[in-house]
Amino acid sequence: MVYHYTKRENLPSILRDGRIKRMGDTECWFCLSLEDTLSVMKDTVMMEGKPYYKVGGRLAHYPKFIPDDYIILKLTPRWQSGEWVRWMQELPPEADTQLREAAEAFSMKKIGFRGDMKFYPNPEVLECSQLLQLPRCEMLQRQEQTM
Predict the structure, then answer these.
(1) CA dihedral 40, 52, 48, 9 (to 10 degrees)
(2) pLDDT value at position 24?
(3) Measuring CA to CA, how many Å separate 121 from each of 16, 53, 79, 131, 144?
(4) CA atoms within 13 Å, Cβ hemisphere of 85
(5) If pLDDT is split at 50, 70 and 90, which confidence band does 136 have?
(6) d(C-alpha 100, C-alpha 90), whole Å
């Protein structure tokens, strides 16, 4: 089981195609738990105005985060050719220990699939707006119940 967050507008094409596409990147990205997925989202798309590098190395800034615009898919991968990888955040050599530890913790929350990842039909679609309102313990209980 893997989790993948995306904008709601992408859901129809994802369900129609039965795969998560790389969208110009080398990998498509997933998390192994709902908690890690929400944590990665808090460190990325929820950081309104924070700079990040897009595919191709172009600098961009995260737009305003609107919870209703996002969903999380709970997917069961199908057998296929491709490779699961873990990509570690790149840091300058002079980065301090605290930054290195934070980058490693972030990197360990996500896994990549080299290729477009096919999944079994009828994935569970989780509403970000609802999940973000749940207390942490309730969210974890929900995750355990759906495993």
Answers:
(1) -70
(2) 73
(3) 10, 32, 13, 23, 21
(4) 14
(5) low
(6) 9
Helix (H, G, I), strand (E, B) or coil at 22: coil
Instruction: Return the SS3 of 14.
Output: helix
Q: Residue 91: is its pLDDT beyond 90?
A: no
d(C-alpha 101, C-alpha 96), whole Å: 9
Closest to 13 in 3D by CA, of 73, 53, 54, 83: 73
With b for 16 or more beta-carbon neighbours within 10 A and e for fewer, the 88-105 pattern comes to eeeeeeeeeeeeeeeeee
- CB distance 144 to 34 below 8 Å: no
Average pLDDT value over all residues in the chain: 88
Contact 6, 71 (CB under 8 A): yes
Sequence-distant (≥ 6) Cβ neighbours of residue 72 within 8 angstroms = 3, 4, 5, 34, 37, 38, 125, 126, 128, 131
Rounded Cα gap, residues 79 and 73, in angstroms:
18
